[in-house]
Specification:
Strand content: 5-15%
Number of domains: 3
Helix content: 40-55%
Radius of gyration: 22 Å
Shape: globular
Number of strands: 8
Number of helices: 12
Bound molecules: flavin-adenine dinucleotide
Largest sheet: 4 strands, mixed
Strand order of the largest sheet: 1-4-5-8
CATH class of the largest domain: Mainly Alpha
Length: 402
């Protein structure tokens, strides 16, 4: 595999770099740098999304016939890397990278032409209703039920850990529509409106005090039968497709590298406690080098997966390898940031947001203020999208054939 960029890829990279330098607003960079959660708040996401949409780059992962720019896998990688290095936010994966591929792969033409433009315009903001109080790793034990009545489904039950349900006007759900010979066979993938009397949303505050996740309650909520994706009972097949995208749909190495670069730069200004700078400390240098090598190894794995995708091969269980490595590295890097700032890295500012005119003033720097909340929030990386233990099981079974 050739990792060097060709001259046309370098030209493409420069085009992206110039666009970001000229168009990524400073307040969006600041908000991204000061957001301790995985996703930025929707008002920031929408501003950046609208700029990318005008340029035709928002759906950069979608096929050309449904609105994508027609980029190759390596061009998409270059775009993600340049965005990460420039400090652009993670775009809402829930809409663009999770539900959209399901709609354009399994949806009817009416579903595609109704929903995809609304994702691009920002009119619809989606959340994911898969997990339940008794169904996380063992997703097939889900109980939330949809009963068909004419051209509608009546939905009862609850969904748990629903990211940004308090912002979303739409939810895509795995719902039990029947019983089959296997638990997996009675599950369907159904789209629903959040803004209806049968749906309630209860906040769950994270360790750091952020509101990112929720519990969603369905009490005779209504879904339209036209919003069933595929056939009744296809939900498990579609969920597997979606989870592969969730685990490996984007490259993680670019953002990890960008954050590690920022830590290395900051360590040239932080004291080591012995009259020198932390960047000169041998143990610190060893820790940073170890993480950097692992991130670079992850980057090579991600590029290898992209090379396979561009040859038409599905990434399959390799995405579990990426999810596992990326989650561990995310946590390693966020721990480095806490250690970098010493006592200042341990502060736990409860006020949000940590950007804008009303942000609480930092004791040391904004980066130090964000280090503690970010460290606590990134504990979730080894849980969401499938826990580390579950990824290890998949790798053992499907990659190593143990
Ligand atoms: C911040 C955050 C955001 C989330 N966002 C969403 C969302 O938007 N939508 C959504 O549907 N879900 C979401 N989730 C839920 C997430 O997918 C589940 O938390 C996850 O799948 C784990 O399920 P669980 O919490 O029920 O834990 P459990 O499945 O009960 O696991 C508990 C422990 O047991 C271990 N374990 C379980 N089974 C096995 C096994 N077979 N072998 C070895 N160990 C095992 C797990 O690794 C874990 O350590 C989110 C979670 C978090 C933390």
């Amino acid at each position: 595999m050739d990792l060097a960029l060709s001259s046309s890829e370098l030209t493409f990279r420069d085009k992206i770099r110039t666009f970001l330098a000229e168009h990524l607003p400073q307040h969006v960079r600041d908000a991204t740098a000061a957001s301790p959660t995985v996703f930025v708040e929707p008002e920031i996401d929408r501003q950046w999304g609208a700029l990318l949409h005008r340029k035709g780059w928002l759906a950069y992962q979608w096929p050309e016939d449904v609105g994508g720019p027609g980029w190759s896998a390596i061009q998409r990688y270059i775009f993600e890397k340049e965005c990460a290095l420039a400090g652009a936010p993670n775009l809402t994966a829930l809409s663009l990278k999770l539900v959209a591929p399901v709609i354009y792969t399994f949806g009817t033409s009416a579903q595609k032409s109704f929903y995809l433009p609304r994702i691009l315009s920002g009119e619809d903001y989606w959340c994911q209703g898969f997990s339940e109080p008794g169904a996380g790793s063992d997703l097939a034990s889900l109980q939330c039920k949809a009963v068909r009545q004419g051209n509608k489904y009546i939905v009862n039950g609850t969904k748990m850990w629903t990211t940004h349900a308090h912002h979303a006007n739409k939810i895509f759900c795995l719902l039990r529509t029947g019983t089959g010979d296997k638990r997996q066979s009675g599950i369907s993938f159904i789209l629903m409106d959040m803004n209806q009397p049968g749906i309630g949303v209860r906040p769950i505050y994270t360790l750091a005090g952020d509101r990112e996740v929720n519990q969603v309650f369905f009490d005779n909520a209504v879904a339209q039968a036209d919003d069933l994706i595929g056939e009744e009972g296809d939900g498990w097949k579609i969920a597997k497709f979606l989870l592969e995208n969730e685990r490996g749909g984007s490259c993680h190495a670019p953002k990890l590298l960008a954050d590690l670069n920022a830590i290395e730069v900051a360590s040239t200004m932080e004291p080591d406690g012995y009259g020198g700078k932390l960047s000169e400390d041998l143990q610190w240098k060893r820790r940073v080098a170890r993480v950097r090598l692992s991130v670079e190894a992850l980057e090579i794995i991600e590029l290898r997966i992209l090379a396979n995708i561009s040859k038409g091969r599905a990434p399959g269980a390799q995405t579990s390898l990426v999810k596992l490595l990326a989650s561990n590295l995310r946590q390693d890097i966020d721990l480095l940031a806490v250690d970098l700032y010493g006592d200042f890295g341990l502060q736990l500012e409860p006020i949000r947001p940590l950007y804008g005119d009303n942000a609480p003033p930092p004791l040391h720097s904004r980066a130090a203020q964000i280090a503690g909340p970010r460290y606590l929030n990134s504990r979730a990386w080894s849980i969401f999208g499938g826990t580390n233990e579950v990824q290890a099981n998949i790798i053992a079974k499907s990659v190593l054939r143990l």
